[in-house]
Amino acid sequence: MARERIFQRHRHPIKTFSLGLQHVLAMYAGAVVVPLIVSNALGFTQEQLTYLIAIDLLACGVATLLQVWGNRYFGVGLPVMLGCAFQAVSPMILIGLNSGVSAIYGAVIASGIFVVLFSGLFGKLIRLFPPVVTGSVVTIIGLTLIPVAFRDLGGGQGAEDFGSGTNLLLGFGVLVFIILMTRFTTGFIRSIAVLVGLLAGTVAAGFMGEVNFAPIREASWFHVVKPFYFGTPTFEIVPILTMILVAIVSVAESTGVFMALGKVLDKDLSSKDLARGYRAEGLAIVLGGIFNSFPYTTYSQNVGLVQMTRVKTRDVIVVAGGLLVVIGFVPKIAALAQLVPGSVLGGAMVALFGMVVSSGIRIIGSQVDLNRHENLFIIACSVGMGLGVTVVPELFAGAPDWAQIMLGNGIIAGSFTAIFMNLLFNGLGTKATAAKMAEKQADAILAETEKSA
């Protein structure tokens, strides 16, 4: 399809607005869950959490607009939505606990600058991350986040009523509700099953007296964006290396999404198009660090909406990005996410993080030659290492402090294991092989989203 047709304006403003709202709703649950998890883990105040959710939504919108813009310097120019990178959750929490919140944002800014500077070379860097590595890493990410979901489902770490009947009823009730929605609905409704589950669970919790409305009452209607809200960033080498690894994994996944959308739009993407896409993602990560939110990556679930609605114009995504920006300036709206009780959030997170695990399994099953014993061994050792370190983090308690963040984090330990073993058994691979793998990744994303639609 010609570039002009991709970028043409939709003739019906109301329909364009409704389609943009659909895209926002499809990614909203993922966007607000990340700040809730990080905030709870790092002990942020209610006011800080409201700011974090608001600035995160605003940054999602700005990141989306940067990517959709598509000029000669940055932006892939496709109808894509950007949101928080789930793979950054555990590393950010560990960095915050070990080095402080300021080190998180120093590392995020540095990783974004790395992506911007080396965007043209990512074709070579991504060869370090073939499907056997990315599939293993995504699987590890999902597995290491599941315990977080179950702690919230029980009422939260250290809660007096942890594991109470009320918490279990709400948590597992939400999970069952999401399962039933996924089974008996299709299309757009199925794509927002997690969001509807959160809403239904919160309403049920309200009738049980488990909802606290104080965040809504205390939040203001408008706030001014404050760079470095949590303080001046600090730059430490190990946190920076950790977030650079997370950024490379995100870019590897984004490549598949770009190529999948290119197929939907009948648009052949050149290496320059991809480089502009990587550069926009890097700029979005830098902005996330400056405004103390999160690293951002391209969301694959919105590809399904493009396929389902058959509306492939850029203006719909511009509306979606604009809506997120507007919401981000209104703390009252952002504070709505704080109404969700921990147990309700935990039930939804079991499904959400379980989907991360299944995404990793999909990558492995559809793009990796499992008849080769070497690939099976890479998967076995990397996933085993990642899960083992997560379950027994005290194993490396005697290691030097500077090494704790690398050795004590299951995602990082498992990722490096997968990269090293892939180089050992499979070598670096050729550029042609990397291109073929990206093509297969795009086909797998399209097949998955077609089934969802």
TrEMBL record:
Annotated TM spans: 21-43, 49-69, 76-97, 103-122, 129-150, 162-181, 188-208, 237-262, 316-337, 343-364, 376-396, 402-425
PROSITE patterns cross-referenced by the UniProt entry: XANTH_URACIL_PERMASE
A Pfam cross-reference name: Xan_ur_permease
Subcellular locations according to the entry: Cell membrane
Alphabetical keyword list: Cell membrane, Membrane, Transmembrane, Transmembrane helix, Transport
Main location: membrane
Membrane topology of the entry: Multi-pass membrane protein
PANTHER family: PURINE PERMEASE C1399.01C-RELATED (PTHR42810), URIC ACID TRANSPORTER UACT (PTHR42810:SF4)
Family: Belongs to the nucleobase:cation symporter-2 (NCS2) (TC 2.A.40) family.
NCBIfam families: ncs2 (TIGR00801), NCS2_1 (NF037981), pbuX (TIGR03173)
Protein known as: Nucleobase:cation symporter-2 family protein
Organism of origin: Paenibacillus illinoisensis
Lineage, uppermost ranks: Bacteria, Bacillati, Bacillota, Bacilli, Bacillales
